[in-house]
Write the structure tokens for this entry.
Amino acid sequence: MNHSCLFFSILGALVLSEHHRIDAKVYVGFAALRLSQDGEVLLRGTETPECGSNENAFHSWVETEDWCVDFSAPVISDICKERDIPGNHKRRVFLKKITQMAETREEMRSEGAFMLGCNDDLTRSMVHDFFAERQRKDIAEFMCRWYRRPPEKMADVVKTDSMGLVRYVRHKLDGEW
């Protein structure tokens, strides 16, 4: 799996469903997000007039009854750096009413404007393939056990660097789209 968005979406939907009793569904397909008022539109999927997607070019997000959530949105700043996209891109939350979604790229005039296009066949295939590997099931199970509903505090996430030193992983969010 080379797209972290699918990982974030599946685990985020599990947490919403199991801990908050929110009917959350994972979708895979095309996504577009206007990064700034005058800036670029970040596209995830095939860059064609039809705005398509395939197993190598896609994005994944979660939808509830009224909301669209992109659990991978905080790493958009990292993607912009990798692609040398100019601007001051911050770690932001993406939580939008589905009714706010643009229907065409031309409607995406303001910062945070977005457009999504689900590929039902790709969604079924990618979610099935995700759970086909035992280690991914284990990670999902672990994460659901680790998660705590606010205000209860979750345990710190740690990782080890190449020297074997433990580092705490903490990222602050800088607002929302």
